[in-house]
Amino acid sequence: MLYFENDYSEGAHPKILQRLMDTNMEHLSGYGSDRYTDLAKNKIRDLCKCPEAEVYFLVGGTQTNQTVIDSVLKSYEGVIAAETGHVSVHEAGAIEFTGHKVLTLPQHDGKLCARELKDYMETFLGDDSHEHMVFPGMVYISHPTEYGTLYTKDELKELSQVCRRFKLPLYMDGARLITGLACPENELSLPDIADLCDIFYIGGTKAGALCGEAVVFTKNNTPAHFLTQIKQHGALLAKGRLCGIQFDALFSDDLYKENGRNAIETAALLREGLRQKGYTFYNNSPTNQLFLVMENSRLEELKNDVVYSFWEKADDTHTVIRFATSWATSREDVEKLLSLL
Amino acid sequence: MLYFENDYSEGAHPKILQRLMDTNMEHLSGYGSDRYTDLAKNKIRDLCKCPEAEVYFLVGGTQTNQTVIDSVLKSYEGVIAAETGHVSVHEAGAIEFTGHKVLTLPQHDGKLCARELKDYMETFLGDDSHEHMVFPGMVYISHPTEYGTLYTKDELKELSQVCRRFKLPLYMDGARLITGLACPENELSLPDIADLCDIFYIGGTKAGALCGEAVVFTKNNTPAHFLTQIKQHGALLAKGRLCGIQFDALFSDDLYKENGRNAIETAALLREGLRQKGYTFYNNSPTNQLFLVMENSRLEELKNDVVYSFWEKADDTHTVIRFATSWATSREDVEKLLSLL
Amino acid sequence: MLYFENDYSEGAHPKILQRLMDTNMEHLSGYGSDRYTDLAKNKIRDLCKCPEAEVYFLVGGTQTNQTVIDSVLKSYEGVIAAETGHVSVHEAGAIEFTGHKVLTLPQHDGKLCARELKDYMETFLGDDSHEHMVFPGMVYISHPTEYGTLYTKDELKELSQVCRRFKLPLYMDGARLITGLACPENELSLPDIADLCDIFYIGGTKAGALCGEAVVFTKNNTPAHFLTQIKQHGALLAKGRLCGIQFDALFSDDLYKENGRNAIETAALLREGLRQKGYTFYNNSPTNQLFLVMENSRLEELKNDVVYSFWEKADDTHTVIRFATSWATSREDVEKLLSLL
Amino acid sequence: MLYFENDYSEGAHPKILQRLMDTNMEHLSGYGSDRYTDLAKNKIRDLCKCPEAEVYFLVGGTQTNQTVIDSVLKSYEGVIAAETGHVSVHEAGAIEFTGHKVLTLPQHDGKLCARELKDYMETFLGDDSHEHMVFPGMVYISHPTEYGTLYTKDELKELSQVCRRFKLPLYMDGARLITGLACPENELSLPDIADLCDIFYIGGTKAGALCGEAVVFTKNNTPAHFLTQIKQHGALLAKGRLCGIQFDALFSDDLYKENGRNAIETAALLREGLRQKGYTFYNNSPTNQLFLVMENSRLEELKNDVVYSFWEKADDTHTVIRFATSWATSREDVEKLLSLL
Question: May I ask which residue range the UniProt record assigns to the signal sequence (chains A, B, C, D) (predicted)?
Answer without folding.
Answer: none
